[in-house]
Amino acid sequence: MISKLIYSHNVVAERIGTAGLNGISMAAADNRRQTNIQVLDASNGNLVKEIYHATAEPDADYKFSTYSNYFGYSDNDGFIGWKRKLVLIDNNDHKNKVGQYRYQGRRGSSNIFPIYFSFNKTKPVAYLSNGTKLIEWNYETLKEYTDYIEGQDNDSLQSKAISQLNADLENPESDLSKNIVKQNIKGIYLFDLTVQKKGQIVTIFAESDDKTDIPHQNALKDLLLKYKFKDIVVSPNQRLKFRYTFSIENNI
Can you point out the beta strands (E) in 83-177? Predict the structure, then answer.
């Protein structure tokens, strides 16, 4: 019986002969995953081959729940960031998944972030981050759940709008990027945007907390109220509403 374990999170796998663990072959794990959560026996430094978790989250979070004797780790289900999840494993049998909470966004979503989490020590609850939000999850009451961050419908206008914002923020020559640099706007800002008529943003609702830079938030809102989406026309009696998280490092 191993009394103490050391968890190792590596890019290069230490495991040997662990094909079939987690239900995937070694070759598939090496081809599809970037990082590996493995375990060493603290008493002798040897690899514990029975415990191995592949994760496509380069900065995966992982820890134990002393309340439930569960082990949890974060993963990137979509490999490019639009599906992320927290997986719970029975610490007595690391092949047995006991729960999962997943965030799912639209293709190109800016609202899905790596999951960092902690366990409550006195009840079956985990606290999950998603950008500026914190989710409280009772993993005994709700063992598996998918949180559709932007809804389940596939609105083509919303997809076009998100794609245009993504492209303009990634392009240092776009007017939006130039104005962001000019005003030295940095940080994470979560906006609910309403678009009407010929692609104009008519209302912006901003979520903020004590860490939000309000002057920069207001400056970004002013820029967006002058922004126009191309090839997007909303019917006079309709409006397009969607949420977008601006994560601006301003290293352009």
Answer: 83-90, 93-104, 117-119, 125-130, 133-138, 144-148
What DSSP character marks residue 146? E
> Which two structure tokens, joined as six digits, stand for 148?
């559709």
Backbone angles phi and psi of 28, in degrees to 5: -65, -40
Computed on alpha carbons and rounded to an integer, the radius of gyration of the chain in Å comes to 22
List, in order, residues 6 or more apart from 107 with CB less than 8 Å away: 82, 159
CA distance 194 to 217: 17
Torsion angle (degrees, nearest 10) of CA 97, 130, 228, 195: 80
Residue of 82, 38, 61 whose CA lies nearest to 128: 61
Intra-chain end-to-end CA distance of the chain, in Å: 54
Sheet strand arrangement including 47-55: 5-10, 35-41, 47-55
**pLDDT, tens digit, for every residue of 47-95?**
887 787 888 888 889 999 999 999 999 998 876 678 899 999 998 888 8
- Pairwise CA distance, residues 56 & 35, whole Å: 6
Q: What is the value of pTM for the model shown?
A: 0.62
C-alpha to C-alpha distance for 114 and 131, rounded to whole angstroms: 8
Q: Alpha-carbon distance 173 to 169, whole Å?
A: 9
The two structure tokens encoding residue 64: 């134990």
CA 148 and chain centroid, separation: 12
Pairing of strands 83-90, 93-104: antiparallel
List, in order, residues 6 or more apart from 206 with CB less than 8 Å away.
189, 190, 191, 192, 217, 221
Q: Are 137 and 125 in contact (CB under 8 A)?
A: yes
- Name the phi and psi angles at 222, rounded to 5: -60, -40
